[in-house]
Amino acid sequence: MSLYVYTSNPAAVAPDQNKVLQGLAREDLFTVVHERFMTDTAKYADIILPATTSLEHSDIYRSYGHYGVQRAYSVIPPLGQAKANWEVFCLLAAAMGIDKPFFKQSADELIDSILTQPSAWLAGTSLQALSEGRPVELPLPEGYKTNFKTPSGKIEIFNPAEDSPLPMYTKPQGDAAAFWLVNSPDARLLNSSFNEREELTKTNKMLLQINPHDAAKIEIADGQLVLAYNERGEVTFTAKVSDKVPGGVVVAEGLWWLEHAPGNRSVNALTSQRLTDKAQGSTFYDVKVNVRAVE
Fold this sequence. Notes:
The mean pLDDT is about 90. It is globular and about 65 Å long. It is about 20% helix and about 20% strand. The chain has helices spanning about 10-15, 15-25, 85-95, 105-115, 120-125, 125-130, 200, 210-215, and strands at about 1-5, 30-35, 45-50, 60, 70, 135, 180-185, 205-210, 225-230, 235-240, 250-255, 290-295. It has a six-stranded mixed barrel with strand order 7-11-8-10-9-12. The chain has eight helices and twelve strands. The protein is α/β, with parallel strands linked by helices. The two termini are about 40 Å apart.
């Protein structure tokens, strides 16, 4: 009956967007969104709590794709009534009567406690440099093993613990449609982040890239408005005819806020809630669509 959203924009990033928006629009759902910008999700909020930027709160960051880590200190005090995630969690804990010392720490105190009792891995780097706000790289400890639940602790191609010990091909489920849809990242956006930057959204369009032979077959011209659709929904794009796209595939880039979309939905109106057969992950890339010109 209640929903608290922070560090996310489910109206744009979650699969099966039509169902998500229906859920967010429920009159009996009390929704709180902790945000810096008026995202698609924030527009459904009963209460919006202003969030701090990374300049206004202390944090510790890890990098994408490698073992870099950096501590950051706030540069300016929070503007207006903005609060960081950690401060809001501590206030909620106090209001709910959760009387634990853990929730009585500031962000800096919490980070200090991690650095004063470092794990073996963290202890292998320069804690002084990290405390001073400089980026450091975490060295892999000698004899380091991953947490893969295999006898070796590593990825094992042959795993006799599985019903099928070797990897096998499972046919994609897809949809009853003509084209496979690939939704790739946009170089200007990060998931649905940075949509608030006018210089990034005004000069670019929500494109659907299509192979020239496929475009000719369904009478689609470059720059034309097209509709991609399947059993879950339909989304309007601007067509970009490109020989970089293989036949039978269409490519959309990025996650656009609805206010920047040429229609009233974005790409996740097409994706499915189906889960994968292993580990129950999302099936964002097991999607097929039909494409036609907008009439």
